[in-house]
Design a protein that fits this description.
With 340 residues, the protein is α/β, with parallel strands linked by helices. The chain is built from 11 helices and 17 strands. Strands 3, 4, 5, 8, 9, 16 and 17 form a 7-stranded mixed sheet that branches. Strands 12-11-10-13-14-15 form a 6-stranded parallel sheet, sandwiched between helices. A two-stranded antiparallel ribbon has the order 1-2. The structure holds zinc ion (ZN) (2 copies).
């Protein structure tokens, strides 16, 4: 079967490999669609993702959906032919975080397409991937594989909203209108935010947000616009851009008593007006991957509460993965999905 291995920065090479062996808790999935994520791009462009440096060539990709082709010991619950979305998380299930329901914080976590564990854990830019049976979520016939693949980033957005302790009735600013920011906006809108605003540098990304969920859009490089839009107060800022100026804006524009959720990966050290946290009694929350929200995301898609199709701006075949990565890195794309 075909697979793509990352050997270093901008060095993604196809290979023909044997189908994987299954362990007792796994099934075999023929991958049908995989979204390209910001973390895939970090690995592709720099050969690493922040502190995570792969110790050997490995397979990227973690936002996937496909079809069961070998059910292993799960022929009853996941028979061959079942269409599934695949949760990329492989937590240890034994540590205190796993037991307490916060498996996203598991120190032994292995995650498709991530070098956070050593050796790196191969992902889904391959035709056949082993998957935990418990991580395979059957999808309805009328849900296409492309949207199902985006359940993983949707779960990331749901986790951020969970960490915010609810959004209903709140005035919310989402910093960053990339895929995660757009998903956060759709979720925040669905769960009843009173007013929703978005900031970004790219007019096309802002236009997509105002077309689908945002009441107001702000060019991040025009501070006057922000002051105008946020003058009535902001109860919640979800920082999804990873840009230090955006995190500073979050501290500055969040109203007294408000909450900031840091979802984007920032540089290791950032200068911030930290006394605003004290003087405004701000609540700061981090949000990392997700735990126990995948099924919630699937419900939203199944009931057509959220439509992910407008986010998918480009599609590529697996053999054109390099072109897909280059497009995903360009400012005109929101979400690139690879079809197999
Ligand atoms: Zn992702
Ligand atoms: Zn654990």
């Amino acid at each position: 079967m075909h697979a793509f291995y990352l050997h270093g920065a901008k060095d993604l090479r196809p290979a023909d490999i044997d189908p994987p062996e299954l362990s007792a808790d796994q099934v075999l999935v023929r991958i049908c669609a995989t979204g390209i994520c910001g973390s895939d791009l970090h690995y592709y462009e720099h050969g690493r993702n922040g502190d995570f440096v792969p110790a050997r060539p490995f397979i990227l990709g973690h936002e996937s959906a496909g079809e069961i082709v070998d059910a292993g010991a799960f022929a009853d619950s996941l028979p061959v032919g079942t269409r599934v979305a695949v949760d990329p998380a492989h937590p240890c299930k034994a540590c205190t975080y796993c037991v307490d329901g916060r498996y996203n914080l598991c120190p032994q976590m292995r995650y498709y397409g991530s070098a956070a564990s050593t050796p790196p854990f191969d992902g889904t830019f391959r035709q056949l991937a082993p998957a935990l049976a418990a991580g395979c979520h059957p999808i309805p016939d009328d849900l296409d594989y492309r949207q199902a693949a985006l359940l993983e980033p949707l779960a990331v957005a749901l986790q951020a909203v969970k960490r915010a302790d609810g959004v209903a009735g709140k005035r919310v600013l989402v910093c960053g209108a990339g895929p995660i920011g757009q998903l956060v906006g759709l979720v925040v809108r669905h769960y009843g935010a009173a007013r929703t605003f978005v900031s970004d540098l790219r007019p096309s990304a802002l236009a997509l947000a105002t077309d689908t969920w945002a009441d107001g859009a702000v060019r991040a490089d025009e501070p006057g616009q922000l002051a105008q839009v946020t003058s009535a107060g902001i109860d919640l800022v979800i920082e999804a851009s990873g840009a230090p100026p955006a995190l500073r804006v979050a501290y500055e524009c969040c109203s007294p008593g408000g909450t900031i959720v840091q979802l984007g990966t920032q540089p290791a050290e950032v200068s911030l007006p930290v006394n605003l946290v004290m003087a405004k009694e701000l609540t700061l929350r981090g949000s990392f991957r997700f735990a126990h929200v995948f099924a919630q995301g699937l419900d939203l898609l199944t009931q057509q509460r959220i439509d992910l199709r407008p986010l998918i701006t480009h599609r590529f075949a697996l053999d054109d993965l390099v072109a897909g990565m280059e497009t995903a890195a360009s400012p005109d794309s929101i979400k690139v999905v690879v079809d197999y």
